[in-house]
Design a protein that fits this description.
With 410 residues, the protein is of the alpha/beta class. 40% of the residues lie in helices and 14% in strands. It has helices at residues 18-30, 49-60, 73-87, 103-113, 128-136, 157-167, 187-199, 264-275, 281-292, 296-317, 340-346, 351-362, 393-407, and strands spanning 36-37, 96-99, 119-123, 140-144, 146-149, 152-155, 171-174, 203-207, 233-238, 251-254, 334-338, 364-365, 367-368, 383-387. The strands form four sheets. The protein has a seven-stranded mixed β-sheet, sandwiched between helices. The longest helix is centred in the last third of the chain and has 22 residues, at 296-317. It is globular and about 65 Å long. The model has no long low-confidence stretch (mean pLDDT 96). Bound molecules: pyridoxal-5'-phosphate (PLP). Pyridoxal-5'-phosphate is lined by residues 41, 101-103, 127, 175, 179, 207, 209, 238, 240, 246, 251. Pyridoxal-5'-phosphate binds at residues 41, 101-103, 127, 175, 179, 207, 209, 238, 240, 246, 251.
Length: 410
């Protein structure tokens, strides 16, 4: 007899389906097939050499033991200084909690703030982990969306402002430089979101993982910089993207100044100690080099990403005859492509059937819209995300040309 041992909440936890695509892609490569990897938001290169050396040195110097639950002091100081300067804010080390990548900042902030039944606004399509944790913690997910314009994707500001006004969420998740649409907030949109959050006393979780992955000359902007926002915002800071350190697992929560024994940042530190004691110490020394050392590596990473972006956008633009529609992504390393017409030509309505058939027939691996939150009622257009961080410009063009030849057969 099967005994059910799992807690009720288990069924509510989501996941990251890009890893599902990766597993299928791996089966093809194991069978000797060529795969064009547009699915994972990871890099085809390792972290810069100076960062590797700092990690090696930390090991050699025996910096391998437990350390402070909130992170090593020099790293907290460096994150505070770097982030404060870029946001024109005073940030002190006690406002920083070093976490195992940026991802725990999502879970830990929601754990610190949410009671069951609390509403949380979050982007959908968006990074799937927000929706996963909101559901897992018994909250009420209140999604907001993005609109396709001739100029790329814009936040549905009206919908977001209306939802905040009507639903009175405890937390609003903002992801400027957005995964998967690459959408960037204008200063006016950012101000409107700040105003409505202040008016409704909502706390903001600002996911700024892609703060450095910008391809145009618009300055970096954080909602925390706006008047009245720092005291109600937790910034998700990540080393993963800027310095290609995805597997090192170092990030940080940067929160309001702690006042008294109870604070959001203090709770992040407590969760650090309850879950993993402290972040891998040698990786923290590597992160210190990343943020304070020579920045040639970060510049090279951005240049490589830009070349892949241009190639991917250019190649997908050539598939207009089969109905693929794309806009040049101004940030992140994702191309959000309208694939309504290709899916119609193939006679496929289901997202899972679509990515699986294309992958198995062509070797082109990508993530469909359904991997970025539950599709919303009334959505008419179909989308897919092509990540260009882990593929060379040449392979990107080859893969997309192959996809084009395939789609033309239908
Ligand atoms: C929007 C967004 N936030 C956060 C993360 C988490 O990154 P990490 O945990 O590697 O810092 C990712 C990773 O892909 C992301 O796309």
């Amino acid at each position: 007899m099967m005994v059910s041992v799992l807690a009720d909440r288990v069924k509510n936890l989501g996941g990251e389906n890009a890893f599902l695509v990766a597993a299928e892609a791996r089966k093809l490569t194991d069978a000797g097939r060529i795969v064009y990897p547009f699915h994972l938001g990871d890099f085809g290169c390792s972290e810069p050499e100076n960062i590797q050396n700092a990690c090696d040195l930390a090991h050699k110097e025996g910096k391998t033991g437990y350390c402070n639950k909130s992170g090593i002091e020099p790293l907290k100081e460096a994150v505070a200084e770097y982030s404060g300067k870029r946001r024109n804010l005073t940030i002190t080390p006690d406002m920083v909690s070093i976490t195992a990548g940026g991802k725990p900042v999502i879970a830990f902030t929601l754990l610190a703030l949410m009671n069951p039944g609390d509403r949380v606004c979050y982007p959908n399509p968006g990074y799937p982990i927000y929706e996963s944790w909101i559901n897992y913690l018994g909250g009420v997910p209140v999604p907001y969306s993005y609109k396709e314009t001739s100029d790329g994707f814009k936040i549905d500001l009206e919908q977001l402002v209306d939802s905040i006004d009507r639903e009175k969420p405890k937390v609003v998740v903002i992801n400027n430089y957005q995964n998967p649409t690459a959408s960037v907030l204008s200063p006016e949109e950012m101000q409107a979101i700040a105003d409505i959050c202040i008016m409704n006393n909502a706390f903001v979780l600002s996911d700024e993982a892609y703060e450095e992955i910008r391809y145009d000359n618009t300055p970096f902007r954080s909602i925390a910089s706006l008047p009245g926002m720092q005291e109600r915002t937790m910034i998700l800071f990540s080393f993963s993207k800027t310095w290609a350190m995805t597997g090192e697992r170092v990030g940080a929560g940067i929160g309001p100044k702690p006042e008294g024994p109870q604070s959001v940042i203090g709770h992040l530190n407590e969760l650090n100690v309850n879950v993993y004691s402290c972040v891998n110490q040698s990786a923290q020394w590597a992160a210190l080099e990343a943020i304070t050392g020579n920045q040639d590596g970060a510049r090279n990473i951005l240049a490589r990403l830009k070349a892949s972006r241009d190639a991917t956008y250019g190649a997908l633009s050539n598939l207009r005859d089969v109905g693929v529609v794309v806009h040049l992504p101004p940030s992140t390393f994702y191309q959000w492509a309208d694939v309504t017409e290709p899916m119609r030509r193939m006679g496929i309505a289901d997202y899972d059937a679509f990515w699986k058939k294309v992958l198995s027939d062509t070797g082109v691996a990508f993530c469909p819209r359904s991997h970025f939150g539950k599709p919303l009622p009334g959505e008419e257009r179909k989308y897919a995300r092509f990540s260009f961080s882990g593929i060379t410009p040449e392979d990107s063009v080859k893969g997309i040309e192959k996809l084009g030849e395939y789609l033309r057969r239908f």
